[in-house]
Amino acid sequence: MKTIVLAGGCFWGVEMYFKNIDGVKDTTVGYANGNVENPTYELVCKNTTGFAEACEIKYDENVVSLKKILEAYWVVVDPTIKDRQGHDIGKQYRTGIYYSDESDISVIEASKAEEQKKYEQPIVTEVLPLKNFYSAEEYHQDYLDKNPNGYCHIPRELLKK
């Protein structure tokens, strides 16, 4: 099993989208790369913690490659917008790719370079080592399963398997 943490605006839709991809074995929404311990949703929303709403994705690389995971990621984010996706605005809604395995850097950078060819504006998605990740509160986990009409910036047709 491999792990990658992706930030792409509100974490509810990112989680729903990725858990429907063959080879993804587990998803957890939470807060990545901030500067306090054990953040809460309320604290992260104050924009003082440095955290991004993110989704930890555990996947079987024998079924789906990191390259394919990243190709799917670029479909549901606008990587040229800083600190915003859809109606969600703030530093916690930035786009980011956070890795734990140094060998993933070349795949990530190649994917980002390929995606850049589609845009005139520069991609602002941060690519950084995963400094920390804290699971979000339980009510955020599988939120769109629990609340099928809940808000999501990702088009609903992309959230189905």
UniProtKB/TrEMBL annotation:
<dbReference type="GO" id="GO:0033744">
    <property type="term" value="F:L-methionine:thioredoxin-disulfide S-oxidoreductase activity"/>
</dbReference>
<comment type="function">
    <text>Has an important function as a repair enzyme for proteins that have been inactivated by oxidation. Catalyzes the reversible oxidation-reduction of methionine sulfoxide in proteins to methionine.</text>
</comment>
<comment type="similarity">
    <text>Belongs to the MsrA Met sulfoxide reductase family.</text>
</comment>
<feature type="domain" description="Peptide methionine sulphoxide reductase MsrA">
    <location>
        <begin position="3"/>
        <end position="153"/>
    </location>
</feature>
<dbReference type="GO" id="GO:0008113">
    <property type="term" value="F:peptide-methionine (S)-S-oxide reductase activity"/>
</dbReference>
<dbReference type="InterPro" id="IPR036509">
    <property type="entry name" value="Met_Sox_Rdtase_MsrA_sf"/>
</dbReference>
<protein>
    <recommendedName>
        <fullName>Peptide methionine sulfoxide reductase MsrA</fullName>
        <ecNumber>1.8.4.11</ecNumber>
    </recommendedName>
</protein>
<dbReference type="InterPro" id="IPR002569">
    <property type="entry name" value="Met_Sox_Rdtase_MsrA_dom"/>
</dbReference>
<keyword id="KW-0560">Oxidoreductase</keyword>
<feature type="active site">
    <location>
        <position position="10"/>
    </location>
</feature>
<dbReference type="Pfam" id="PF01625">
    <property type="entry name" value="PMSR"/>
</dbReference>
<dbReference type="GO" id="GO:0034599">
    <property type="term" value="P:cellular response to oxidative stress"/>
</dbReference>
<dbReference type="InterPro" id="IPR050162">
    <property type="entry name" value="MsrA_MetSO_reductase"/>
</dbReference>
<dbReference type="GO" id="GO:0005737">
    <property type="term" value="C:cytoplasm"/>
</dbReference>
